[in-house]
Amino acid sequence: MDSKKLKLILEIAVKLTEVGGEISRVEESVERIAEAYGSVRTDIYATTSNVMVSVETAEGEIITQTRCIGRINNNIEKLDKVNAIIRWVTEVAPVEQEVYAKLEEVDKVKTPSGVLELVYFGVIASAFCIFFGSRNIIEIISSFILGGVVGAISQGLEYINANKLLIRFLCCGVAAFVIRFLVLAKLFPAPDYITIGIIMTLIPGAGITNALRDLFSGDVVTGVLRTIEAVLIAAAMAIGFALPGIIMGGAI
Amino acid sequence: MWNIDTLIEILAAFAGTIGYGALFNVRGKKLFFAGLGGMFGWIIYLLLNTVVANEIICCLIVAVITSAYSEILARILKTPASTFYIATLMPLIPGSALYYSINAAVIGNMPGFIHHISRTVQFAAALSAGIIVANTVARNIKPKKIKK
Lengths: 252, 148
Description:
Chain A has 252 residues and is mainly alpha-helical. Chain A is 69% helix and 8% strand. The radius of gyration of chain A is 22 Å and the shape is elongated.
């Protein structure tokens, strides 16, 4: 165990958090890896913005390192890969270079391409439009297209690193205006189902699930941070959807 | 109650869950199982709803069942439980209740707003309670680390 090994451990911890691992998983993994590399005592404190680890080597030296965590992007395939790496590292304690090589492979994991992601957005919007009661084919098709449009706006804003809340607010605002005009054009009778479909694509479902699991597994700080973030996102969406009603009068 | 409409609803739950899973880069077999979880969760919800009138209780029970499904499947397929959690619970998320509360708020219908927003919160609370129950149980039946 030396400072290079500790650097590697932090690298893994940061990666795990950034792809959407729960904090309890991060802390447990760090402890196990450190143990595998011969740490006598490991102290870790991790949140979604920062991770710090202290280890005591067999020679009695204490090393501490801290690292900031960047944008969290839930990506299950990458999470699965990082998790597999952690299992492997705890079992065989390989040399650093091998682990770094594997970690680089994680970055190369294919994410859905831009267009494909828009299709997913469309599928979610139209599926939940149907799910909540729409049986109007024009409404379903519009929700598919609008879902894609919302996805494109979200991607574009994410590309320029816009604030998460602003992204949801603008997406919902644009969607609400479009829906209002579609209803005014008498394409379908009510805005209800298509709006719900769009809400379901943007709702912070993953955020709230992770928040709760962190909150109740003892990582209160992270849990609270994530819960507040999810609630704020929901509020930003609500304000976005209320926008046409506020400006032009009437309901959504 | 089991007509073509219900069937469409169930298939939509399947498609929606798959779409949400795919957006988070869940793949292959896992994506399919996540979709199945979402679909069966909704079937159980509909079945329960014929017996139990209270939607919130139904939501709670289904949340426990789907979360347990996620935890068990995660252990079988050796993958983090998040793989299934994120997508399978989607049909239970109170998107419509949230919509109706915003709608009521915009037109200034305060009693309506309070009714719908409290339903949203109740649904979210039931969902959370379900996740917590399954998650806590799963955490405690994990094999203990061997101490040296």
